[in-house]
Amino acid sequence: MNSIFRTSLVKIIAIVCCSFILGYVYYETRTIPSNFPVGKHFIVEEGETLRSVSVRLEEEHFIYSALFFRIWISTLGRDRHLQLGEYIFNEKHVLGYMVKKFVSIGPDIPLISVTIPEGSTTYEVSQFMKKALPHFSPDIFGEKVFAKSADGKLFPSTYFLLPSTTEERVVEIMTSTFTKKYKDTFSSETIRSPLKNENDVISLAAILEGEAKTKEDMQVVSGILQKRMTLGIRLQVDAAKETYTIKGLPEQPINNPGLIALYATFHPIESPYLYYITGKDGTMHYAKTFEEHKKNIQKYLR
Prior knowledge:
By secondary structure, the protein is mainly alpha-helical.
């Protein structure tokens, strides 16, 4: 009798637990939050994870459970398929629709892809942005860059932006990308004389973007220019005309360098050369003396 009672009790407990679990799952997946923010926009930006999106959806009352949202998407094998952009919900939706919206239907306003090449000047960056973003003002952008001393730190990359992204937000995104890339790549590097600080590194890297094309040439030119700085010789580079009248680096970076040029500032290749030119064929030609340099000019540029 006791055995039958225990068996029945276990079954009853199991049924109650299953009913509770099924009820909880139904509540989480088939009911809609009473305070669902109808009409509110939700933005998924580049670099966001499934976890961060799900947590924000729960916090902003679009869904009841971030966990169930993630489980559902993982079950579908769509963990890495959240579509970037701006989502607009003009009516309330159950969790299943929300999952479908983010991994299949997609955003109401997709993000726009903008590619900034290495060595782009701040002006060139503004023109790329103006072409892609309908309300972008190059003048306002220039003011924001100047206010934040962001010249040289508008990291060249491909960005995914909302059409409504402001000029200030573009500066924030690009400079924060620079900070992360710089720290991740060069945190263990030591800035050596004649370079004094990070600004010198960026300024020299910007010149290298304008003066050389390949990684090795950038490293050789980096060695030549740092040698000239040590010797107190003017750099006299065509990419930065002011270096013909001043000693040392320009006060501000002349463009926004990429990782290869930045790497070359930390890893210059030592050579016996003090001069170089880029020939009409695009090849670099080096010289130890000014006389050799003049001969290279006659031979490869005339």
